[in-house]
Amino acid sequence: MHDPEESIVCLDSHLKSIQLIGFKDEENEIELVKFFLKNARVLEKFRIVWAGYALKSEEASKKVLNIPTSSFDNSRCQAQTMV
Prior knowledge:
Layout: H1 9-13, E1 17-23, H2 27-39, E2 45-50, H3 58-65, E3 78-82
Parallel strand pairs: 1-2, 2-3
InterPro entries: FBD (IPR006566)
Protein name: FBD domain-containing protein
Organism: Solanum bulbocastanum
C-alpha cells in the first residue's frame, strides 16, 4: 500500500495531461481531482468532461476549477470543464 506522505514519481515529474470523462461532481471524484492537483507538479492540462446526465451548473464548475493546487507554478496548467 502506498504511503500518502511519499511522493509518487510519475505524478511528481511526468504526468502532464489528465482528462476525466463522465464527471458527475460526486465526492469521490472531487477527492480524486484534489489528489491530482496536489501531486501532479508538471501538469499542463486538466480537462473534465461532465456526464451527460450530471447536474451541470456554473457553481459546480467553479468549485472544481477553484480546488487549490500544489506549490508548483500553476500558471502553466490549463484547467477546463466541458459539457
